[in-house]
Specification:
By secondary structure, the protein is an alpha+beta fold. The chain is built from four helices and four strands; from the N terminus they run E-E-H-E-H-H-E-H. It has a single domain, classed as GIY-YIG endonuclease, CATH 3.40.1440.
């Protein structure tokens, strides 16, 4: 299953990406091996993740999110949070990809919420 995710970088900017393995992708970002944009912008916080059935659907959703202005992205996150669709923020540190927050169990059913302790292994 594909996943579309939204990260907040340490400098406050937002990054949107897609993956088939969120655990692995977040660990790569944490190690500085993810997207060029996120390198040097740690710690990163996972703000939102949503499943997509196909790569095509994930790319379309990523494109929709990337086209939004920052204020619209934050408003969308607030709306999702009010509806209970957003997982607890999950933060990583670049040094060894050690987690200091975990996703809540209520969001685990989407397949896009990750426990970074598993991702760091």
């Amino acid at each position: 299953m594909w996943c579309v995710y939204l990260l907040r970088c340490a400098d406050g900017t937002l990054y949107t990406g897609i993956t088939t393995d969120l655990h692995k992708r977040l660990a790569a970002h944490a190690r500085g091996r993810g997207a060029r944009y996120t390198r040097g912008r740690a710690p990163l916080t996972l703000l939102h993740a949503e499943p997509a059935r196909t790569r095509s659907a994930a790319l379309r959703r990523e494109h929709e999110l990337k086209r939004l202005r920052r204020a619209a992205k934050l408003a969308l996150l607030d709306t999702l949070s009010e509806r209970g669709k957003r997982a607890e923020p999950l933060t990583t540190r670049r040094e060894g990809a050690e987690p200091y927050a975990e996703a809540s169990a209520r969001g685990a059913s989407s397949g896009c919420v990750v426990d970074l302790r598993r991702a760091a292994q």
